[in-house]
Amino acid sequence: MSDSNVEIVDDRDPRVKYSDGWAPSGGNHEFGGTTHGTFLAGSKATFTFNGSSVEVYGTMGIDHKDPPVSTYSLDGSSLQTFNPPLPNAIQYQQLFFKSPTLDDKQHVLVVTSTISETAFWLDYFRIASNSISSPLSDPVSSVTPTTLSTSSPSVSGMPPTTPTNTPKLSINRTLIAAIAGGVAGGVLLVLLVFFFVFCYRRKRRFQKAAFGSSTHPDGSCEHRVLNSACH
Hints:
By secondary structure, this protein is an alpha+beta fold. Helix content is 19%, strand content 34%. It has one helix and 14 strands; from the N terminus they run E-E-E-E-E-E-E-E-E-E-E-E-H-E-E. Strands 1, 3, 4, 6, 9, 11 and 12 form a seven-stranded antiparallel β-sheet that branches. Strands 2-5-10-7-8 form a five-stranded antiparallel β-sheet, with no helix packed on it. Strands 13-14 form a two-stranded antiparallel sheet. The chain crosses the membrane at residues 175-198.
């Protein structure tokens, strides 16, 4: 397929309609970091496009006893069944279907998963046309298939999602604000304690100056005003 008038259509494109049984997922090695998967036989993905040829690409895992078998019909005519050998490593961006040359007009491609309990992962479509303009997906001239000897999509049926780096700037600002608020509160509390101690001691000195007090020379007792006696 020539790259001069080629459009890559991601699995999230609104031109792709999914029946029940599909779920979005994705990983680092899928096109655009996304894919759609199903474990349900009979699940369909319908793709309406304008072009003269179409190709379908997907991911093949290794955690199942059967390969992901799928069928392809174009404009109501059944064209092909994809029944690959079971891979010994995860294969990303693999070619599942390639149409013959078509009239350059609108077509409807239906992709159907035919085996239950074996994950079928749909990644993207690649269409060629004599007059592709303003595509909904970014045109990509080259997409390289990838094979990795790593674990397959998880038991839940979804490939590992693309890690997302959590922004640290807002967290640091929040932490700094919290520390500053704690320090300010601590300083205010200490100042209040010193203020009350100062007021209390000042009051005590004032009372002593006003009423007076004396200690017996031998230190045995304190003689206070109001005629209090030592015993």
